[in-house]
Amino acid sequence: MEPIKRFEELECWKSARCLVKNIFEVTQVGELSKDWDTKSQLKRAALSIMNNIAEGFGRFQVKDSMRFYDIAKSSAYEVKSMLYVLEDAGYINEGQKAYLHQLTNTTLQLTLGWIRYLSQKHPH
Fold first, then answer.
1. Range of the domain at 64
2. Average pLDDT value for the chain
3. How far apart are CA 107 and CA 2, in angstroms?
4. Which pLDDT score is estimated for 62?
5. Any domain includes 44
6. Which residues, 6 or more positions from 107, have their beta carbon under 8 angstroms from its beta carbon?
7. What total number of domains does the chain contain?
8. Are 40 and 78 a contacting pair, CB within 8 Å?
9. CATH no. for residue 68?
10. Which of 11, 15, 21, 46 has the largest count of CB atoms under 10 Å?
């Protein structure tokens, strides 16, 4: 396997980018578009996943990188929690809910996989 040279090559970042795109789309319509606080929190949490993966990749020390990947992981859990808020408030339909949960779970699993890979490659 060739070494990854750019954060854009990371599968977890690609998945986070797709999640952000879909979160932005869902926040532009319906009642959610009028709920500024919820919409903003959800968008910031999704952006945090994507941007912390990129920022972690740009660090020279693996320990520094892992801190950002851990934040990305935590932000994915925040998005998962926020999706329940959207569901409970009736902001998203069943199809949107299922798709966004799937995207979030995929992003989370890929991020956890990247963290595991780096942990094994660079044990403390």
1. 36-121
2. 95
3. 22
4. 87
5. yes
6. 12, 15, 16, 18, 19, 49, 76
7. 1
8. no
9. 1.20.1440.60
10. 46
